[in-house]
Amino acid sequence: MVAYRRCVERGIDPPAFIEEWMAQENPFLNDDRPWARASVIISGERVPAGTSNGCSMRDRQIRM
């Protein structure tokens, strides 16, 4: 999972703490499903400068 990988890469918290947190976070997310209510979702994945991520703003629908 992306969140787990990012937390481990930061090196701030020990992996055991992150695993405990994820064990509690995943059931919450599965029940609450915040992405179903979101108007915009940003992945946070980095796209190198000068490359395309395959999307343009005109391709997206933004609900207000």
| 3D shape | flat
Distance between the termini: 29 Å
Mean model confidence by pLDDT: 77
Number of helices: 2
Provide the low-confidence segments as ranges: 56-64
Question: How many E strands?
Answer: 0
Structural class: mainly alpha
Beta-strand portion reads under 5%
Give the biggest beta sheet.
none
Characteristic terms for this protein:
mainly alpha, 64 residues
List the helices and strands and how they pair.
Elements lengths: L1 H9 L4 H18 L32
Overall description:
By secondary structure, this protein is an all-alpha fold. Helix content is 42%, strand content 0%. The protein has two helices and no strands.
Describe the structure concisely:
By secondary structure, the chain is mostly helical. It has helices spanning 2-10, 15-32.
